Amino acid sequence: MKTLYMAVIETKPVSDGMKPVLLDQKQTLNLVSRASDIMLNIFTPDGLPASVDRRFNHIFARDTAIAVSFVDDTPKTLTQSKLWDRSKAAVLSFWGFQRPNGSFPHEVKKHSPSDRLVKQKHFYQEGEYSINEDSIDATPLMLIATALYVPRHSFDFETILPKAQRALLWMMDNMDENNGWLSYRYNKLTQQGWMDSKYSVTYEDETLPEDPISLVEVQAFAWKTFQNWSDILRDVNPDLSRELKERAVNLKKRFNDEFLIADDRGIYFAQALDGKGNQIRSRTINPGLCLWASYKGEAIIDDAYIPPIVERLTSSGFFDEEAGIRTFERGQNVHDPEGSPDGGYHKGENVFWPFATAMVAKGMLDLGYVHEGKKVLRANMKPVLYFGSFIETFNRNGTYKLYANGERGGSTKNQTWTIAEFLWTVNHPAMRNTF
Length: 435
Prior knowledge:
Mean pLDDT: 90
Strand order of the largest sheet: 3-4-6-5
Low-confidence stretches: 1-24
CATH topology: Glycosyltransferase
Number of domains: 1
Strand content: 5-15%
Radius of gyration: 20 Å
Distance between the termini: 20 Å
Number of strands: 16
Structural class: alpha+beta
Helix content: 40-55%
Shape: globular
């Protein structure tokens, strides 16, 4: 087995008014072992559940795709090879839930008539399952993940090919209907990107924008999907391959024209465009996810804009060296910086999500920003080690605090995409001798 690079890390900040608590190598390895055990045992015949927590112990397309992408990029020890095989099975299994129109659902769970969200008709029943379709990024993310586990000359490719082409056609149809952007309209789940709490995407006065909503990171996911599958289909479906490449080129040009913003801190990218093409100018972590969605050393963000984006994400407005990257930059009109039941468990200048921070760090590393990527990963490890669990989200304003949301509960403590990014981080060669 390959050696883990992690040894010692400060896990409680001095600003808490306490002496630093050091985690030695044995404790660290125990946490790594627990992460591996949870991941290896959580898979079901339906796929990869989002969490050990019973509230989310079922499958989400977005969570699955992001988690297995980290698994694929982790060095293949014996344990990781088993985890890779199970991740591949989860990807193949989820294709069984593809919708007739070619898209992927947001959430799938075993049907229960007593389920609160089923009663509220957030889901519809399909056989033994309850299904919610309110996701705009599920389809490109699943196509990105599938390309990792079902490459062109693999045994399973011929089975997946017609399904993948339907998914690509759905994406193109959606974009043709929505001014060239991959977009969503409000439904039972108002917001349909990874920040899916109701008021996570608003105008500056915190009113909901006119839909359809075109999220910045979703355009990057679409761009990567088109580039990747254009290459995959070059000798299988040349016409579709050419169209995907043309769409990717045009999407990148329009993206850098229409999402780019400037303020007193420099240039950045808007959170989204509304239904009339107006910028929703919130400064979020999401342009960093555009770095994650790079392909062959290129991102949807023009090369000239990447350095200032990296610099901004690693500056104090976004970055906390004890916690990672905030979901929203400091200094904006965020009604509750700690997060609120309606919109804030994603939205707030003191809100952090480890999986999203790790995605940004991976994007930086993949594009050659090694110093910055390592800096972000070191920070991102600290709250996981502090809490001693693979938390979904937390707040930090001098001290760490798990997000809590009254009777509906709060942050889950063993979220699979956090586990997957943790295992990727501790095994990454860039992290050698940095703890």
